[in-house]
Design a protein that fits this description.
By secondary structure, the protein is an alpha/beta fold. The chain is 33% helix and 24% strand. It binds nicotinamide-adenine-dinucleotide.
């Protein structure tokens, strides 16, 4: 039997645990997996680009457990009543290849993306940061805010979105959670006084949602929306002033902000900072940039966290996903003598 967390159980679990606690716990799993990064089987995700958006498969393995996520990215979806990003994912046992765990990952991706951002910020953001600017206040925004509060202590938000309704929604969701939220009049206004700047917009374009002139020394940039070829958020000049941190360099060179840069543009992989092999933030004037695109190991960590967290609870069900005849060579026998319904 395969354990399965559907949307209903994901929502029940998230409500019972609390989103902030989930992301705080997930950071620990992410750090564990980033510490053993070299031991994973890694490949840039497999992307199918269409005029509507991108459909992607994100596989990895630690040679005991294999995992993959299916995810889409369709920036034009909300205007048609659909979400920009949806996902589901699987863990499988390497020794026999059987899937052991299956989950919805639309919500889990939001948790894992924000937890990864917070983990990066833990090593890269200036000490004592309390204020975060958020440019883009769509589906990911509240998750980003809560994860940054759990890990850094961010309690003040300055938000900007080209859609006023998205900002209204963020204020409605975040104010009761205890955040001080200011609605800004532009991206430049949003970043005033912020020690951390998160860009989480969706537009299939080389957009400039943040200009170089608005980036002051000492800030940490958490850029999550530039995650596809032809889809970036930052004015390229920012990268000349920043130290750039990435997940898996071969994938980020195709998809991240650094797609505008030469192939030898210097980056540091985040796992090297987590292990202490290379420095993260080294000075008060340093601009740090996490050029996030989302990598398969983060989904693997999130699925591991969820699998362990729901063990022994009723937040999952068991489904009959693998056809397994008593005689492993007699698969056809199942067709000849169907199980009673
Ligand atoms: N790096 C990762 O691991 C990762 C993971 C998940 C999602 N993402 C990306 O994060 C982005 C946000 O995802 P989402 O699910 O919140 O999308 P969403 O469509 O729900 O929200 C995006 C918001 O950006 C706003 N926006 C678009 N252009 C803007 C601009 N120029 N200035 C200000 N606001 C602007 C839109 O009005 C919308 O409210 C997407 O691009 C998605 O692909 C990245």
């Amino acid at each position: 039997m395969t354990r399965f967390v559907d949307v209903r159980n994901m929502v029940r679990w998230a409500a019972a645990q609390g989103p902030e606690q989930i992301m705080a716990g997930m950071v620990g799993y992410l750090e564990d997996d980033f510490r053993r990064w070299p031991t994973f089987d890694k490949t840039p995700r497999v992307a199918s680009h269409t005029p509507f958006g991108v459909l992607e498969l994100m596989p990895t393995s630690d040679y005991e457990t294999y995992g993959f996520k299916y995810v889409n990215g369709h920036p034009s979806n909300p205007a048609r009543g659909y979400q920009t990003v949806t996902a589901f994912g699987v863990l499988a046992d390497v020794h026999n290849g059987y899937p052991t765990f299956l989950s919805e990952m639309t919500l889990l991706t939001a948790f894992r993306t924000a937890a990864t951002s917070a983990m990066a910020a833990k090593y890269l953001a200036p000490r004592g940061a309390r204020t975060m600017a958020m440019i883009g206040s769509g589906s990911q925004a509240e998750f980003q805010a809560l994860a940054m509060r759990a890990v850094l202590g961010i309690d003040t938000l300055r938000i900007w979105d080209t859609d006023p309704l998205a900002m209204d929604k963020a204020v409605r969701n975040l104010t009761p959670l205890g955040f001080q939220v200011t609605v800004a009049s532009s991206a430049g206004d949003a970043v005033r006084g912020a020690e951390v700047i998160t860009t989480c917009t969706a537009d299939k374009a080389f957009a400039t949602v943040l200009s170089d002139a608005d980036v002051r020394p000492g800030v940490h940039l958490n850029a999550i929306g530039g995650d596809c070829p032809g889809k970036t958020e930052l004015e390229a000049a920012i990268l000349d002033r920043a130290d750039v941190f990435v997940e898996f360099t071969p994938q980020t060179r195709i998809e991240g902000e650094i797609q505008h840069q030469p192939a030898d543009f210097a980056v540091t992989e985040l796992w090297e900072v987590v292990t202490g092999a290379r420095p993260g933030r080294t000075g008060a004037e340093q601009i740090t940039l996490f050029d996030s695109v989302g990598f398969a190991i983060e989904d693997f960590s999130a699925l591991r966290y969820l699998r362990d967290a729901v063990d022994g609870t009723d937040f999952f069900e068991e489904i009959d996903l693998v056809a397994a005849p008593d005689d492993p060579k007699d698969l056809f026998g199942l067709v000849m003598s169907p199980l009673p319904v």
